[in-house]
DNA sequence: ATGAAAGCCGAGCATTCACTCGGGTTTCAT
DNA sequence: ATGAAACCCGAGTGAATGCTCGGCTTTCAT
């Protein structure tokens, strides 16, 4: 059950009296595992977890299936490793708290160039709702965390008068998370007519007060014209 | 490629000179196929298309796998038949055009009693984004139709002054579809903390003007308190 | 009633699946 | 340098998959 990436202190503890024992991964191992995980992103992203095979991943990584299983003993452990890998190297969008909306829209625009990633999360979050799916707990935790984070940011914006009166941060936070999730799935099915950043901006413009006039009076922000038609 | 449900006129044409030929389905066939399709909803809903097997469906329907394949020659055709079956018997929510929001919220509340159905659509819409998935075209069409329908309803509401100024029906329509889709997936992962009707009502309250004061002035509708916390 | 088609199923079939085994090659601390 | 562990792989293994085949039973228009 030990993930490949977890620091195994016992390997590193160089006891003088311990003449022999496990030596830990070699220098090239990290790079090889990165190759495998990148291949797994593509396979699980394009075929899903149930639909993709470890043979597919091994082929795409240019190694034998047996070697893959040496690094990640089971398919389920490989999937968990993929998700943790993507979390580790994901672009930690900086952005000040005041630029909440801009940060989200910018991230959505950035994602348009990473269809593999979007596919991975869309396919797996749906699959993960099934019984005993190895990624189920990951997505339960992930969505709960996101809802909490967004609600918190919106509460802060409310405290400085940037949230439109009548908007409950504990409703709007989960709304952003769900909207983002849903619109990305639709974008994968219909890339030409669905505008992910546009839809998100449309909602954020609805609930936020523009920075200049913190005293909110009416919904006078310009209509958002998205390419989303029909 | 002929779906089981399509009316096959050639069977019914009783030509006097045709002494023998295909006779069409027997009386009990419709009921049997309904059993199979109900079983398939549960299997594909709880395990996904790739994760569920036709053996599972046959077992749950209480028939042999071979008999199932007599009625639905391939697994892919079974899936398509399931989706069309659910469309055919789906509760055609009446509701006047003016009661747009109420109709949606009522449908969402109704869905809480049909977790099998919600699972089916959530799991499959994610899976369907993968290459060559037999349900891909179904979901492409379905989402496009829903976006168009909702945008149309909102355009009508705008024409009678019930849409908040500044809200573009062509953005809000797709937003409702995506939000619904996303929040249902999260509900399946976290049924106790996610309130599907509440989140939808929160958005609809934001974009619609209450019936009584068609002259909209501020966001003075009460804050929506959902059970959605953290 | 009869007989042809529909309905139904046990027994396979070829393939793919995740995973194991045994043994070779490479790395690297000593 | 050396030797133990890490790395790597060919060749399986057993189970499950979607689907076919051949033949029996049931339905029902004639």
TrEMBL record, chains A, B:
The DNA-binding region ranges are 53-72
Q: Which residues form the HTH tetR-type domain?
A: 30-90
Please name the InterPro entries in this protein's record. Answer: BetI_C (IPR039538), Homeodomain-like_sf (IPR009057), HTH-type_TetR-like_transc_reg (IPR050109), HTH_TetR (IPR001647), Tet_transcr_reg_TetR-rel_C_sf (IPR036271)
* Keywords per UniProt: DNA-binding, Repressor, Transcription, Transcription regulation
Q: Name one GO molecular function term.
A: DNA-binding transcription factor activity
| Entry-linked Pfam families | TetR_C_6 (PF13977), TetR_N (PF00440)
Gene3D superfamilies assigned: Tetracycline Repressor, domain 2 (1.10.357.10)
- What is the name of the protein in this document? Transcriptional regulator
Q: Please report the organism this UniProt entry assigns to the protein.
A: Arthrobacter nitrophenolicus
């Amino acid at each position: 059950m030990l993930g490949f990436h977890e620091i195994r202190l016992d390997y590193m503890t160089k006891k003088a009296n311990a003449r022999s024992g496990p030596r830990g991964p070699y220098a090239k191992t990290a790079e090889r595992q990165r190759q495998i995980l990148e291949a797994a992103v593509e396979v699980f992203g394009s075929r899903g977890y149930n639909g993709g095979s470890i043979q597919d991943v091994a082929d795409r990584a240019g190694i034998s299936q047996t070697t893959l299983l040496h690094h990640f003993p089971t398919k389920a452990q490989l999937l968990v490793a993929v998700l943790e890998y993507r979390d580790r190297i994901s672009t930690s969008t900086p952005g000040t708290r005041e630029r909440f909306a801009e940060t989200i829209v910018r991230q959505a625009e950035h994602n348009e160039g990473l269809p593999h990633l979007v596919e991975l999360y869309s396919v797996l979050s749906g699959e993960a709702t099934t019984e005993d799916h190895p990624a189920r707990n990951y997505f339960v935790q992930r969505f709960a965390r996101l809802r909490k984070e967004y609600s918190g940011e919106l509460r802060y914006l409310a405290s400085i008068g940037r949230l439109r009166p009548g908007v409950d941060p504990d409703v709007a936070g989960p709304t952003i998370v769900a909207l983002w999730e849903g619109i990305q799935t639709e974008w994968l099915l219909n890339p030409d007519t669905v505008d992910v950043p546009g839809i998100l901006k449309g909602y954020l413009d609805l609930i936020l007060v523009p920075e200049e006039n913190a005293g909110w009076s009416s919904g006078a922000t310009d209509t958002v014209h998205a390419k989303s038609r029909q």
